[in-house]
Request: fold
Amino acid sequence: MQAFVKIKSGSYRNQEVRDEVFPLIKQFQLGSKGGYITVDGSGRFGKDKIRVTVASPTDYELVEAPEAPIVAPQEDDEAVIARIAERFEILDDMTKAVLNGDIRAMIVAGPPGIGKSYGIESQLEKANLFDQISGRRVKSEMIKGTATALGMYKALYKYSDDNSVIVFDDCDSILLDDVCLNLLKGALDSSKKRRISWLADSYSLRNEGIPDQFDFKGGVIFITNLKFDQMKSQKTRDHLDAIQSRCHYLDLTLDTMRDKILRIKQIARTGMLFEDYDFDQIQQDEIIDFMTENQNKLREVSLRMAIKIAQLRKSFPFKWSALASTTCMKSI
Reply:
């Protein structure tokens, strides 16, 4: 029989949870950051397994199912779209602040394929264009993929001047490497002087004339698919906590399938998603409806997938859905 729990006082991701009832999954446990209980949060938060922070077992009580009130209703679609749009506007504003030197560092977290990199890359291109027109050295770069510790040291040196910015995009291996993490912590340190050192012997550094230590004055943006609070390794979590304490941390909160679908709808409304395909509104709606109806069958729900289906819609107007079913869906 399903047990229910009434949470008198608690929180989930900085959202207050008070006098609300949820299906109980697991009772009070102590974690590295305090106590929590595990509940089914699909009615309120759109996730079927969440940890609600509570101070002690006295902050909740078991209740019978008939006593369980309906949990707060989900946001309607327009409210979710507005929330998502606001998050990405904040991302644009924060990126500008890093480029202007007003903010030292930012971490942007969210699932793959939802446009985390696009806005940041656009801001970098604008800044670099002004530098190129003015005949100045370009002061920002986006590095994608794997980065070694030595490669990271070189990149930080190259963009160590005031108002320089380096963006690490999809370089999650950095967060699992102790040397990379220590370099990153040095670059993001809150002290006035941020000195970074490479004390191991390196022919590569000598050959390129890079010193074994320098003061870093630039900014750093780190784009990641990882959720810092969900890492299993305690050692890794401790490192990431140290990184997070030095940065502004922006979680784009696109955690559910519904959020991803509505993000696609939000981008489609701007006209940017299908701008290269000359689709009318009916054709655009057909693609989004197809993704919505088949969201649990698609290999991924992302902006990239929307573009793939749009390509099929453009190339094969009479059988695109059959082709999309074959090439874009998981085999069952």
